[in-house]
Amino acid sequence: MTRHYLLSRYAEGARPVAWVTSGAPVELLRAFGFYTVYPENHGALCGAKGMGSELCRTAEENGFSQDLCSYARIDLGTAVSGRTPAGRLPRPDLLFASNNICQTVAYWYTVLADRWDIPLLMLDTPFNHTGEPGQAEVDYMSAQLEAMIPTLERVSGRGFRMDDLRDVLSLSKETAETWGEILGTMKATPSPMTIFDAFVHLAPVVSLRGLPVALAYYRILLQELKERAARGEGGIREERKRLMWDNIAIWYKVRDFSTLFAERGMNFVTATYTNAWAETAPHMNPRRPLESIARTYSRVILNNSLDHRLRLMEGLIRTFRVDGLVIHSARSCKPYSVGQYDLKRLLMERLKVPSVVIEADIADERAYAEEQAQTRLEAFFERLER
Amino acid sequence: MDCVAGIDVGSLSTDVVILDRQARTVSHGIVRTGASSTRAAEEALAQALAAGGLSRGELVSVVSTGYGRSSVPFADRAVTEITCHARGAWFLFPDVGTVVDIGGQDSKVVHVGPDGRVLDFTMNDKCAAGTGRFLEVMAEKLQVGLEEMGDLSVRAGGEVTISSVCTVFAESEVVSLVARDHPPEEIIRGLHRAIVGRIWAMVRSLGMRGEVFMSGGVAKNRGVVSLLEERLGQAVHVPPEPQIVGALGAALIALEQ
């Protein structure tokens, strides 16, 4: 990822640059050779580097509400001030957003489009109340993708070839599947890595998906994890309890939490968050590129009902033999955090899995209270240890 | 005589309970926490030891709990107030299914199993609404004693609706209600209703479980208790000294050591 951000500094002028949301079908852009930057990944990076709150404040000083998602505030703060731990972000020629992860991106990217006076392509994905999209929804989304092609050709200066898209989609599918296999190695006891490692290894499938480098990286990682699992080598020294994480990481606490849990022999072996980039891979079909892109990206976790989430979590708890669940209620991410108390109650009733809710934020440290989080977690440990 | 002590260092008060080997209460002490948790723990312990006619040497085990639990240097172990309140409540009232604790800076709802252990819990968000601090701020604003609020509320002929659940906004709402000459007891009843609304939301998120037991300083407030009973549609059991339930739980855990 360091290499990716380093190359970013030189992308401007050399290649067409696009800023993309995490849930947008980047495969379409790859077929035109766009260099892609992920503001959400950058937001996570800023959060982990302890720069999140500072950039959020910059956005607030420029009139954005502190109730706005911190990824959005960080990105707008960077756009205004030019400050970033990555050195420099390339100015985009095009913006690509999909509201399959939230509605915030629609307004956030509109602000960026207005600021730079560049085209914004938006994929509108109707919410899945029943778990999968109907044919009318698929047609509606496919038609939008098709309508984007002339703009992509104009901005990139390159003609569209369906075979290019097929190739990218094959690569993307294989990358997401390999990521799924990587997460699957964590079924082993002890799990060969922790979810905190997975949070870091997640970056390529999010932001380099569809490029050969991401797949090459995951093949090496998968091999290493298989070997570790075969040797019975765990991600932490002693795995006594296996946990699941719900929601996006608390980026500025990843290091502290990994120590806090490891010291107690608690290992996170699965997360709805990391799973999100493996979950939809089977729906990618290079033989029917546009239609399968519509089907795949309509099914992302945040565009799906709470019933779907409940079934998914039940499945992960069983498959990964989870003893307890840590739920991050993220101030930034409303679509991910809504319904968590109901999910908590239902999982306790159905599977007797104890859980704890931590109120925090993904990248803005000001929304995190150490003492409160500590007390909740300790009480959770006492509950698990009895 | 061999004894054990539980020390609950809360944001407002520090409470100590001393038990003998048979889990009988020997004495207790309550002091304001003030600026130093360590000093408050020392003082509350000294008070309880004096009340029981005991010396420090007779304490074989000490467990601390509450927000200042890690600032008690002479404690053998620190345990969270969630576990301690559950244990204390279960000891006093073995049929308990749900503990509602409203303390100085947080409130919590805990589901307790038949063995007195925590099954599940939830706590208030990073916000003073629904805590003892909320009432303390309002008592100051209305110039009534914190302990008088319960009686005033029960006696109120009517009730004012407090629309904001935020402590700061509710305070300005109270100021304007006072300026418009609303009777203080009706405002107080409205404030109690607001707190109960917050607690109800937490109870709902966990689900109701069996008999309800209330602990923490706010349980001394008859107004809050009666409105909570009305909202829950069932009796709320309050011990004679609700403030020391956490310390009692800590002492019971010390006894198991």
> Which percent bin holds the helix content of chain B?
40-55%
Annotation, overall tally of beta strands of chain B? 10
Taking pLDDT < 50 over at least 5 consecutive residues as the criterion, the unreliable ranges of chain A are: none
First-last Cα distance of chain B: 17 Å
Order of helices and strands of chain A: HEHEHHHEHEHHHHHEHEHHHEHHEH
CATH class of the largest domain in chain B: Alpha Beta
Q: How much of the residues of chain A is beta strand, in percent? A: 5-15%
> Roughly what is the average pLDDT of chain A, rounded to an integer?
95
> How large is the radius of gyration of chain A?
20 Å
User: Which sheet architecture does the biggest sheet of chain B show?
Assistant: 5 strands, mixed
Oligomer: heterodimer
Major sheet strand order of chain B: 3-2-1-4-5
Largest interface: A-B, 22 and 19 residues
Structural class of chain A: alpha/beta
How are the strands ordered across the major sheet of chain A?
2-1-3-4
Largest sheet geometry of chain A:
4 strands, parallel
Count of domains of chain B: 2
**Total of helices of chain A:** 18
Tally of DSSP helical segments of chain B:
8
